[in-house]
Amino acid sequence: MNKVESTDFVLAFGSCNRTDLPNLLWDDILNTKPNVWVWGGDNVYADTDDMEALRAMYTMQNENKEYKKLIKKTEIIGTWDDHDYGLNDGGVEFEAKAESQQEFLNFMNVSTDSPLREQEGVYSSKKYDLEKGSINIIVLDTRYFRTAITLDTETDKRVKPNEYGMGTVLGEIQWTWLEKQLNQSNADFNIIVSSVQVLSNEHGFEAWGNFPHEADRLEKLISSSKAEGVIILSGDRHISEFSQTQIDGMNYPLIDFTSSGLTHAYKGFTGEPNPYRVGDVVFTESFGTLEFDFSSKKVDFKIIGNNGVVLQKLEQSYQ
């Protein structure tokens, strides 16, 4: 699966990666010749406030033979989710979050003098200026500031949406930063990385839909900012799927591309509601790629499994 001539930039991403399970996908990821690899969260499964244990898992991942090859050839960026953050379904209440952040930044090979070392939360951005165009990757932290979710005691779902206006996913400091990122962006494409799904909101697990006012705020910001080519990447769910919706003021659909998981998938998946779904759900191990063509302002989205098999694809023009 080599890069075709019309592809100017390849972004590969994935989430939900256990160090104690075989990972058969790194060679396939390498074969897509990505310009960047984006971790979407749950990069290891630690669930701990013991920083030595967390560090040992990150070290184990870094020692994976095929992943080492990716590190040498490709820039690595990304975010975390609850299991590498350290607390299942955790948020602002996790007492070891500051220490965990430093271990995460070590894993991502962030320099010791980077401003990210002093910042609360792992949100960041990276702009790629290429000969034919530019891409801004905006990485969100949906853990550090996220307030309590509401357990669902009435149905068989795990959680239910908070009352409208109650709680936050990003916290005001991060919201201000995100508004600046989008309002001031001159990039041809703006990729927003969220560890949890933004559009799919009826499954009863973690999602932006549990904070409906925050989901509405994000959609309004994306539209009002006039930032070009906005795309959302998400993980967490152990399934991969495409979701999309049309937002007032935008001349293209907002796509939320979920890619999960790298080492273990929801093999028993029998279906769940998602009013925004396009195509079929993939519930085997997979990763995602986005192939950008600047001249036609087109993106090819692919869900890829073992041996480079394309399990699902989507094409979208951003003219």
Strand order of the largest sheet: 4-5-8-9-11-10-12
Structural class: alpha/beta
CATH architecture: 4-Layer Sandwich
* CATH level-3 fold name: Purple Acid Phosphatase, chain A, domain 2
> Low-confidence stretches at least 5 residues in length (pLDDT < 50)?
1-5
Measure the end-to-end span: 26 Å
What's the CATH C level?
Alpha Beta
- Shape descriptor: globular
Q: Determine the strand fraction and express it as a percent band.
A: 15-25%
Series of secondary-structure elements, N-terminal to C-terminal: EHEHHEHHEEEEHEHEEEEEEE
Major sheet details: 7 strands, mixed
What is the CATH H-level superfamily? Answer: Alkaline phosphatase D (PhoD)
**What is the total domain count?**
1
Radius of gyration: 18 Å
Number of strands: 15
Protein name: Alkaline phosphatase D
Domain PhoD-like phosphatase metallophosphatase: 49-246
InterPro entries: Metallo-depent_PP-like, PhoD-like_MPP, PhoD-like_sf
Pfam family, one: PhoD
Q: What do these coordinates show?
A:
With 319 residues, the protein is α/β, with parallel strands linked by helices. The chain has a single domain, classed as Alkaline phosphatase D (PhoD) (Purple Acid Phosphatase, chain A, domain 2). It contains seven helices and 15 strands. It has helices spanning 26-31, 51-62, 65-73, 82-85, 97-107, 172-183, 212-225, and strands spanning 9-14, 36-39, 75-78, 124-129, 134-139, 150-151, 159-160, 189-193, 230-234, 240-245, 254-258, 277-282, 287-293, 298-304, 310-317. The strands form three sheets. Strands 4-5-8-9-11-10-12 form a seven-stranded mixed beta sheet, covered by helices on one side. The protein has a six-stranded mixed beta sheet with strand order 3-2-1-13-14-15, covered by helices on one side. Helix 2 packs parallel to helix 5. The longest helix has 14 residues, at 212-225. Residues 1-5 have low confidence and may be disordered.
